[in-house]
Each structure stands twice: as C-alpha cells, then as structure tokens.
Amino acid sequence: MLHAALKPRGYLEIGVFSGDSLRLVNPGTPAIGIDPSPHLHGHFPGTTQVYRMTSDQFFREMVEPLERSPDFNLAHADDVLADNLDLAFIDGMHLYEYALRDFMNIERHSNLRTVIVFDDVLPRNDQEAAREQCPGDWTGDVWKTPRVLQMYRPELNILLVDTQPTGTCVVFGLSQDNLGPELYDTVMTLGLDQWNDVPQEILDREGAVSPQEVLARISAYLDKLEDQ
Q1: Which helix (H) or strand (E) holds 224?
Q2: Is residue 180 over pLDDT 60?
Q3: Phi/psi of residue 48, each to 5°?
Q4: pTM, whole model, 2 decimals?
C-alpha cells in the first residue's frame, strides 16, 4: 500500500531474507536491499541491487572509499540515496540499538518526503521480545526504538501500526535541520537493555492505528509539502 501511495523514487530495505518484500517495489524504481546472508529466489530487475553485507558495513562503505569492497556498486547506491530515497524498510537485526542505528544512517540520506518503516515493534509477549532469539516468531526489543524516538524527536510523525503478526511503525516528517551533532551520541548511550519488560500498552497495542489511517496522514503531510 505504501509503494502504491508514495510511488517512491528510491527504495531501501534492510533485512532482505528471501526478497519477498523487495519484490513489491514498483517496476523501474531504483532499489537497494541489504542483507549479509540473503536467501533470494526468483528474478530481480536490473534496477534492484542486493548488497551482501551488514547495514553498518554498507553505510560505512558509502563514506569510506578505502574500506569499500571491490563489488560495492557505489553508482547504484548514489542513485537511490542522493535525494531520491522516499521509502525505507528496517527489518534487520532485531535489537533496538541496531534498528536505531539503521534509522540514524537512513535519516542522513533522507529528504522531506522520506518515509521510514520499522517491522516487529509490537511483540505479543515477553518471550518474543527477549534479546535472545526464541523459537518461532522473534521481534527482539525493537519496540524500544520508536519509544526512544518519541522521547527525543517529538517533531517527527511516529505512528504505531496495527499490522499482523507483530506490528510496524511508520516515521515521516524528517529534516536534516533537526540533526544536532550530539543527539544520537546521547541516545546510543542510554543503555536501554535495562528496559526488560514490555509495557502493557505495547502488548495491548494502545494507540496503534490502522494502515488506512497511516496512509491518510501521510497523504495529508505530502499535500502540505506540495502547498509550501
């Protein structure tokens, strides 16, 4: 639904696995998938490039030519990230500090239209939300990441979305003007592993809205941008 509504000029996905969600990209849209060990099946168009590395390595190689792998396609990465990144999906390592770092790195390449989506932010029980991977569905403690952003980035539009099985979070209204140099240094040293128990309001999905509500709010936001 987001792809259809946004028609993004560029798309980035962290955590590709089999590539099913990466295939949702509109034909012809430059797209990046990042995964250290993808299990891809089927065909991908030439406009889609999968980088077989961690997201930390990908963003480091974007700015460190001396560390760049021989097969790093800088031209394709630049095509997506140079003011064209309108949609990003974070579904990588299921620990809050990884998800937060992915958000930080993506935001540095964002524009006013960019929408960032987190997966697995509404665990259904403490077992799913443990920092140690459990059998079956595992969200880890990614639920902490939207909560931190709500605390430290109140100017952002941050919406928990009632999707199955383990919820999503949509963030938009980003601006490079709001990135103070010390902001994320402070956030990354909070030590949120001490937040052991999932709050009841997360388990009950309090405040989570429908996908249709999210689309309506994003549409209103983009219309306002057009009018400025």
Answers
A1: helix 211-227
A2: no
A3: -110, 130
A4: 0.93
Cβ contact 17:35 at 8 Å = yes
Q: Report how far residue 189's alpha carbon sits from residue 75's, in angstroms, rounded to the nearest whole number.
A: 34
Q: How many whole angstroms separate alpha carbon 172 and alpha carbon 63?
A: 25
CATH of domain 2-227: 3.40.50.150
Region 1-8: mean pLDDT is 95
Q: Given the DSSP bridges, would you call strands 85-90 and 168-172 parallel, antiparallel or unpaired?
A: unpaired
Q: What are phi and psi of 224, to 5 degrees?
A: -65, -40
Phi and psi for 72 in degrees, rounded to 5?
A: -75, 120
Return the domain boundaries, the chain: 2-227
HSE at residue 35, side-chain half, CA atoms within 13 A, is 19
Vertex 197: Cα angle to 100 and 54 (nearest 5): 25
Q: Which two tokens stand for residue 180?
A: 């103070």
The pair of three-digit structure tokens given for residue 79, joined into one six-digit string: 């095509």
Q: Which residue from 60, 2, 3, 5 is spatially nearest to 28, judged by alpha carbons? A: 3
